[in-house]
Amino acid sequence: MLTSNEPIDFRCSCAITSSLDILGDRWILVIIKQMLMENVETFKDFGERPEAIATNVLTKRLKLLEELGLITKSRKPDNQKTNYYHLTKEALELTPVIIDLALWSHDNLRTLNPTIGDYEELEHIKENKEAYCQKLIEKYQEKLATW
């Protein structure tokens, strides 16, 4: 279950609206996607991604994600200077949502954004989305196990 030290101002009791009160920010799912699918772990890694999140925005969002229990922050014993961010079980449960957004965008946003890549992999993912999501989660968890 997610927790936060700061009270969240939920607009209403609707489950969808409540989830969007947290996840509807323009950067939250981008950060989670980068961590899950692009092996992003450090503040520097985020800055090197094409989405180019402003550093002040990134700092605030990482702090919020940590407060909500969607990410953890730690340091390696051999590198006490760098913070490493990792997704929690609750964040990993967003994997199907992220994949569904990718599929929907691929199928529906080309007229608005013709630069969207044409990924052959997406057709394969559509055939067995559940297996793909599970494999993605397992790969992420294996990476964490070596930490």
How many extended strands?
2
What's the number of structural domains?
A: 2
Helix content: 55-70%
Structural class by SSE content: mainly alpha
CATH superfamily of the largest domain: Winged helix-like DNA-binding domain superfamily/Winged helix DNA-binding domain
Mean pLDDT: 91
Which CATH top level class of the largest domain fits?
A: Mainly Alpha
Give the helix tally: 8
Outline the structure in words.
A two-stranded antiparallel sheet has the order 1-2. Strand 1 and strand 2 form a beta hairpin. The radius of gyration is 16 Å and the shape is globular. Helix 7 (120-127) packs across helix 8. The mean pLDDT is 91. It has 2 domains: 1-88, Arc Repressor Mutant, subunit A, CATH 1.10.10.10; 94-147, no CATH class. The protein has helices at residues 15-23, 28-38, 43-47, 55-68, 89-92, 95-108, 120-127, 129-145, and strands at 71-76, 79-87. Helices cover 56% and strands 10% of the residues. The protein is mainly α and 147 residues long. It contains 8 helices and 2 strands; from the N terminus they run H-H-H-H-E-E-H-H-H-H.
